[in-house]
Amino acid sequence: MLEQAQIKAGQIFVLGLSSSEVNGGRIGKASSAEIGEVIVGTIYKTLKAKGIYLAVQGCEHLNRALLVEEELAEKKDYDVVSVIPQLHAGGSGQVAAYKLFDRPVEIEHVTAFAGLDIGDTAIGMHVKHVQIPIRPVLKELGGAHVTALKSRPKLIGGERAKYSV
Hints:
By secondary structure, the protein is of the alpha+beta class. It has a single domain, classed as Rossmann fold (3-Layer(aba) Sandwich), CATH 3.40.50. 25% of the residues lie in helices and 24% in strands. Strands 1, 2, 3, 4, 5, 6, 7, 8 and 9 form a nine-stranded mixed sheet that branches. Strand 8 and strand 9 (144-151) form a beta hairpin. Helix 3 (33-49) crosses helix 5. The two termini are 19 Å apart. The model has no long low-confidence stretch (mean pLDDT 92).
């Protein structure tokens, strides 16, 4: 997925995760801290090695806010909000990231370059325009539907314009 997205060091990757869906249940009804730890831990390790920032989207109870490293929030001048994610208010992904990150903070919005949605958590609001679907190798994880997005620059200028994409 990272290869298809052509994401680079310093860019943001958003993760939406429903451990309930992975667990075979309905989103928000069968949360699993263990599933969150395995999935977020694996993704975090992979992204960190490539210098890519991970933003973990929370559930609707936190208005889909994102947990990020304080370094990213400072670098991008994001407004930090005050909340500590819980299993049923933020979700298993955020709880896992809160434990993993060096200095975790919660922010309300990012404009990520690409993202992965495990369990139909609606990450599109956090991936910049124009969004392009990626066909992940794994289309399901447990009981969860898996989708992915990348972005590209907008094509402007109409029929007279020439594009490099």
